[in-house]
Amino acid sequence: MQPDLDLRRRAVRALGALADIRALDTLLRLVSDEGHALQEEAAEALGHMGKGAEAQPGQPQRIFGILTRLAKGTGGVARRALIGLRYFGTREAWDLIRGRVEDPDPGVRQTVAALLEHCADPTTADLLTARLGEERQSAVAQALAYSLRKHHGPDSLEPDYAMVLSYHAPLERELLNRLRDRGDVVRLFSLLPKLRRQDLYMGPLVQILTNRDPLPIDAAAPHLSLAHPRTAMVAAQVIGRAGAKAAKHKDALIAATKAYREAWLAEYRRLVHGESHRLGELEGPYLALLWACARLDVGGDELVAAVSLAADGTAHAAHGRKIRRQAVIELAAGQAAPPARRPSRPCSAAATASCAPWPPRASASARATWPRWPRRCSTTPTRWRACCPRGQTRPNPRCAGPRPTCTARAWS
To answer: How far apart are CA 362 and CA 354, in angstroms?
Structure first.
């Protein structure tokens, strides 16, 4: 053998690549010598001898047994023995490799992830997808994603969907662009409840779904439920952005808004009794549903009910302040109110509801809980304006029309 260690290693690798059966005895001697400087290279090269040794009865089984024994460790010899098993190529060899995909040692997992690129078993892609979702080590996740891409091809979105569900940032710049341009909206909605890194993927996916042209209305409507609040919030944003185009889903929207109101009240009662609650989890979807109801001009009863939500005068009432404020804003913008009760003149949006009479379907108890309902501004009989308690005018961003000055105290 050559005195230079690097040359000797390259020579052993060359013997393996040639798969010359005459080198079998030399490789067996090197691989059986614990601590030998060439043991790692010999373990990999030995795997190449599997087919060449078939002419010698019992030799393939002997080689497989040696590789199996060496692959049980976690060091360099074990990793090179796993590579040797890949070249050995039998079903039993691949079963051993696949069985180490969840090994506690990150180095072994990374080696196995890279080897699975060459595994022809049809279930390998599913195994890689599952492991990518659970893997915490960045280098291992990168190897898994690379092998998964090799299995699905360069144009497939399956590796992108799997990466979104992982703990790691995108390994390719174009991942989110591909999902934006070609991602299936039904599949994207199904990913939202499963995200492990909301900080990385929730915002981009919401942007992709809410900026689609046309908006994925039909894909969003089935997700207006209590099962997954985060997904329901995004679905409500899509429905709200669509406006009148989503009118066929108005019943589902109203039902979902009612369900979230009842669920929120149930959690509020748990809060009052000092129990654990999910108010924070339900607040965002509930606010989005109220906004969507206003955009579709439906759910007036739900908006009115939200105005007095948890307004019980206790210290806990502050938890419903955002919801009550949202309902007041939407009603003050003139949305979800019966057309007959709106001013006949096309004045500003702020004027539409701020000075409109009390919605006819509101209950007496609801009216009693809103003592600050605005009345008509007597100083401007032909135009309407919402005023604050102190009499100053309050601009409304929804209002695009003229805004006459009003100094009257328009709140009772």
So the answer is: 16
Query: 320: number of CA atoms within 13 Å, CB side?
Result: 25
What's the pLDDT at 34? 81
CB neighbours of residue 222 within 10 Å:
13
Cβ(118)–Cβ(77) below 8 Å: no
pLDDT tens digits for range 285-295 = 999 999 999 99
In this structure, which amino acid lies at residue 399? C
Question: How much of the chain, in percent, has pLDDT values that exceed 90?
Answer: 61
252 Cβ contact list (under 8 Å, min separation 6): 221, 224
HEC readout, the chain:
CCCCHHHHHHHHHHHHHHCCHHHHHHHHHHHHCCCCCCHHHHHHHHHCCCCHHHHCCCHHHHHHHHHHHHCCCCCHHHHHHHHHHHHHCCHHHHHHHHHCCCCCCHHHHHHHHHHHHHCCCCCHHHHHHHHHHHCCCHHHHHHHHHHHHHHHCCCCCHHHHHHHCCCCCCCCCCHHHHHHHHCCHHHHHHHHHHCCCHHHHHHHHHHHHHCCCCCCHHHHHHHCCCCCHHHHHHHHHHHHHHHHHHHHHHHHHHHHHHHHHHHHHHHHHHHHCCCCCCHHHHHHHHHHHHHHHHHHCCCHHHHHHHHCCCCCCCHHHHHHHHHHHHHHHHHHCCCCCCHHHCCCCCCCHHHHHHCCCCCCCCCHHHHHCCCCCECCCCCCCCCCCCECCCCCECCCCCCCCCCCCCCCCCEC
Domain annotation for the chain: domains and CATH numbers: 1-99 (1.25.10.10)
Higher pLDDT, 258 or 392: 258
250-287 residue pLDDT tens: 999 999 999 999 999 999 999 999 999 999 999 999 99
Cα–Cα distance between 28 and 59 in angstroms, integer? 11
pLDDT at residue 54 tops 70:
no
What is d(CA 130, CA 370) in angstroms, rounded to the nearest whole number? 53
**31-41 residue pLDDT tens:** 878 878 888 88
Count Cβ atoms below 10 Å from residue 269 Cβ, excluding itself: 13
Which tokens is 356 given? 């409109």
Compute how many other C-beta atoms are within 10 angstroms of the C-beta atom of residue 400: 10
- Is the predicted pLDDT of residue 375 greater than 50, yes or no? no
